[in-house]
Structure formats: structure tokens, C-alpha cells
Amino acid sequence: MSNLFSENEPRIVVFGATGRSGTAVVKRLLENGYLVTAFVRDPERLVVSDSKLRVVIGDVLNPSAVLQAVRGHSAVISCLGAGRSGGIRSEGTRNIVWAMENSGVKRIISQSSLGVGESRGNLNFLWKHIMFGVLLRQAYIDHGLQEGYLKASSLDWTIVRPAALTEDEATGEYRHGFPANDKKINLKIALDDLAHFIVQELEDGAYLHQSPGLSFGEV
Fold first, then answer.
1. Stretch 48-61: mean pLDDT, rounded?
2. Considering the entire predicted model, what is its pTM?
3. Is 63 helix (H, G, I), strand (E, B) or coil?
4. Are 95 and 125 in contact (CB under 8 A)?
């Protein structure tokens, strides 16, 4: 692993950096001047290139690789995904938590999904019973396990629960931290708005040890 960054500069490591959310987050971090380490399994899928970006190749299911990647960083952002399947989000998160607790890195912001935990009350019939009840059931279960590992940890965690992600341009006008029984949301959020919120949370820590939902307002 080459050392491209000064030891005195803050560094952020992003897991799931080649996915849709991870790519948006990496771009936003770089735009804001952060030094970023992208932890990736397949570097050819990484579409971002920048002098402030370092790439580390590894498997999030390999605890020793995760530990090596986490060491020396100021914070961790996790955008792990596995489509409809389960396992990678939860097991990868468990490895990240273990690595952070064994390397002294405390701050993590992790992407989950609106509808997990108490935010289930925000969902409509389609998302509650068809999407998460049948089509995305394994992913839904995986998110729940993922959140459990974070909440049981000693870390300074924030779990971000976005609604369905769209390719729309960032609006900067979205709702966050709304009550779990709030139905005045349209259950969609732009990827770039998700990235905006995550980087803002990294900077101000407004939702430390909380699980805010993200969504556009009522249509």
C-alpha cells in the first residue's frame, strides 16, 4: 500500500466505493477537499480518479484486509451493498466494526435503508409488503443485522436511512430526521443528495448515535 498522504492530514476510508452510493460519496468528499481511501474489490469498477484519492484493493469479508485499510484514518464511511442478496452488508459491517475497535478509529457513517427498524412506519403498502416483504426481503434482513452490529458497538456511529435512490441531480432540498410515522414523504432521494447529507454529517455530527431517514418531501 503506497502512502500518498501526509500522516498529519485527516483521511476518510470509504467501503463500497464502486457502488452507486459509494461513487457519489467519494466524488463529494473529493470536491470538499478530503483525502480519500477507496476500499474496493475490483479497481476497474472505480470511475473516479483524483490526486487526493488512494485505492486499496481487498475484500470486506476479509477481517485482516479491513483492519489494514482502516488503520490511520480519521473516519469511515460505509456504502456497502449487495443488491437483493444478503450477507455482505452485515458481515462486512461486522468486520469494519471489529477493525475500528481494534485500531482506535471511532467515527463511522453507514448507509442503511429507510424502512429498517422503527422507520418501517414511514413506508407505504408497496414498500412494506411487496418490496421489503417479498422482493427485497433478504436485503432488508441484512440491513437490520448491519444496523445491529453498529448499535452494539463502542463506535461513534450514524446510520443513514435513505429512501429509494434516484439519478436526479442534487437538489439540496430534502427532508431528514423525520418521525417514524411521517407519511408526508415520497420515498425517493437523489444519490447526490445522499452524498451531500453524508458529508455534512461527517462535518457536523448532528445525528451522532441516531438513524435519520432521508427523502424528498411530499409530491
1. 97
2. 0.91
3. helix
4. no
